[in-house]
Amino acid sequence: MKTAFCTFIYSKYYKYIPYYIYSIGQSYPDSDIIILYDGILPKKYKHYVENSHNTILKESFTKGHNWVKELKHRGAKYQSIRHILMLDVFFNYDYIYFGDVDILVLKEAYNLFQFHRDQCAKTQLPFSNKVRPSVAHENIPSKRLTGLHFVEVKPYYTALKPVIEKFLSDSTYRNQLLKDTERNEHVLYNLCKAAFNFDAEKLLHNLRPWHGFHLGLVRGKNYLNIETVKQNSSLDLQLLKAELNRLNSNGEINKLLMKYYCFQVYQTYLYLGLDLAYSVHLKYKFMEAKRKLITKLKYR
């Protein structure tokens, strides 16, 4: 069984790449990693990717997809492009887990790939995801999947290929699928619905754990919402701390934090009371003080 993780990155989200790659390497060392970046990576990050084991980089993957510019999404509209890509490299694998670059992938009681294979068998679909509940009621399905998407490559893309081809060649059909979508997850829902005609109520009850820790929880915040962690992680708080400590048992998180600035990783370790090197604390306190001063001067 050949497996891969794949993530789609745009703008300054490249800052999470070293942590994403490192966490996967520590938790799933036999899996490959596919990095898709919208543009050309800064040299320092590109060097890290190219020198990482089992990692493939594809740059400027959004070129030619002008239709996305017309989307009126709330945010991250360029992420919609990822759902209609059928790259040759995908077909080197049996299973691919498409996830977010700002998730630290950690070890759990079960294997991520086996977990989703079992869920695929249960739903009799070549993909594993969850339909989000509607705003009106948690037992009513929306028309939106999540951004964490597992696929059995051959049967998934065999069924999706005609939908994608028509989407790209027929603007009327494309506009029909994109109509009333507010997020890229609505686009994924519509594509999969067209290809597999799945029962939304059944997928409403699927499981979709983070398989790690989502750094978005501390982005722009001065606290960590433990309840959100409990709702989305298979790891309780003690196991989460143990896993994050394991990542830094050789001091590698310290090294990454010194070389690849990422305040959200620093905040996570800080909020959870986990040990970091003194030099790391000095650097991030200095950088945060500098940021606040620049902001203050900017709005004087």
Question: Mind explaining what this structure looks like?
Answer:
Helix 4 (153-169) packs across helix 6. The chain has helices at 17-27, 43-50, 112-123, 153-169, 171-178, 184-196, 200-204, 226-232, 237-247, 252-259, 263-271, 278-298, and strands at 3-9, 32-37, 55-59, 95-98, 103-105, 127-128, 149-152, 212-214. Strand 2 (32-37), helix 2 and strand 3 (55-59) form a beta-alpha-beta unit. It contains 12 helices and 8 strands. With 300 residues, it is an alpha/beta fold. It has 2 domains: 3-208, Spore Coat Polysaccharide Biosynthesis Protein SpsA, Chain A (Alpha-Beta Complex); 224-300, no CATH class. The chain has a 6-stranded mixed β-sheet, with helices on both faces. The protein is 43% helix and 11% strand.
Oligomeric state of shown chains: single chain
General form: globular
- The CATH architecture of the largest domain can be named as Alpha-Beta Complex
Average pLDDT figure: 94
**CATH third-tier fold name of the largest domain:** Spore Coat Polysaccharide Biosynthesis Protein SpsA, Chain A
Strand content: 5-15%
Would you count the extended β strands for me? 8
The CATH homologous superfamily of the largest domain corresponds to Spore Coat Polysaccharide Biosynthesis Protein SpsA, Chain A
**What is the succession of H and E elements?**
EHEHEEEHEEHHHHEHHHHH
As laid out across the biggest beta sheet, the strand order is: 3-2-1-4-7-6
Radius of gyration: 20 Å
Number of helices: 12
N-to-C CA distance: 59 Å
SS-based structural class?
alpha/beta
Uncertain spans: none
The number of domains is 2
Residues in helix, %: 40-55%
The biggest beta sheet is recorded as:
6 strands, mixed
CATH class call of the largest domain: Alpha Beta
